[in-house]
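Section 5: illustrative case.
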């Protein structure tokens, strides 16, 4: 079960990254590609910063990234409310929920296994 929650978290990170990247960089027909690239970099900074800890299966990083998932959920709801980016917003909502649920469950299960092994 611990491995499943870890993979859920990593799949959520990949889904949020992909949905944000496609949503921001896909409309190539417009000015300000450099500004959109900077916005993408700014939005993905928390995920990239937490990626080494997620790959190393550290519970503290999973707990921290679960709070960041709520930020991405909010962005997804905002984008889903707009008519032009509704599919990307829905994809981001699904990916951020997967990220949140996987990270919270991993943190709880890992804490339980560490507590049981200490006794």
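Designed sequence:
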């Amino acid at each position: 079960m611990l491995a499943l929650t870890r993979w859920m978290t990593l799949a959520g990170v990949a889904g949020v990254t992909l949905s944000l990247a496609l949503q921001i960089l896909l409309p190539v027909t417009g000015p300000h590609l450099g500004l959109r690239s900077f916005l993408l970099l700014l939005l993905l900074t928390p995920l990239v910063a937490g990626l080494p800890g997620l790959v190393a299966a550290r519970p503290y990083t999973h707990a921290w990234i679960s709070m960041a998932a709520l930020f991405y959920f909010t962005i997804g709801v905002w984008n889903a409310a707009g008519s032009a980016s509704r599919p990307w917003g829905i994809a981001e909502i699904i990916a951020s929920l997967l990220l949140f649920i996987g990270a919270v469950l991993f943190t709880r299960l890992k804490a339980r296994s560490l507590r049981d092994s200490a006794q």
